[in-house]
């Protein structure tokens, strides 16, 4: 039997006594003769997981898809721990990976610079070392090492030449004379320098 109603293709036709009614099907709105798709995503009438899923509108309906870094059916999504499952692409040797909801963060270890995926050693000898001007700075992995130049010694005051060390000891007002010379004797300064006490004071 030929249809004699003028309901929309997206509507149901219900027969009544001597007539009929048109009503839009679920996912559409209108008077039954004209039915438009309802965008559940833009109207926020969907039931996708709000934080961890995306809503994609379809004709007459919608689809929920878990965001990258999450797994589930779109209505319920759980965070994937990329670090625990070792599926991250952080630099495994030189970076730290931390997992957060739906994503992960990669950060280079101390002493290294980069984006966490590619990390290179920072040259502390050029940038931020605190070596004495009388010391040599050597780059180590993630740090640096200071070593006094030949002829200089480290005693807590930086790197000093032997004669400078003797001057500092002899000019110290707070050290008794005997203690001063005891310090110098223990330092192993050449006897020739010790004889120049009067010139240095």
From TrEMBL:
Coiled coil: none annotated. The keyword rRNA-binding does not apply. Keywords: Disulfide bond, EGF-like domain, Glycoprotein, Repeat, Signal. It holds the Pfam family EGF_3. Gene3D superfamilies: Laminin (2.10.25.10). GO terms for cellular component: extracellular space. Residues 3-36, 37-78, 121-160 form the EGF-like domain. InterPro entries: EGF, EGF-like_Ca-bd_dom, EGF-type_Asp/Asn_hydroxyl_site, EGF_Ca-bd_CS, Growth_fac_rcpt_cys_sf, NELL2-like_EGF, NOTCH1_EGF-like, PKC-binding_NELL. GO terms for molecular function: calcium ion binding; heparin binding. The keyword Glycoprotein applies. This is Nidogen-1. It comes from Stylophora pistillata (Smooth cauliflower coral). The gene is Nid1.
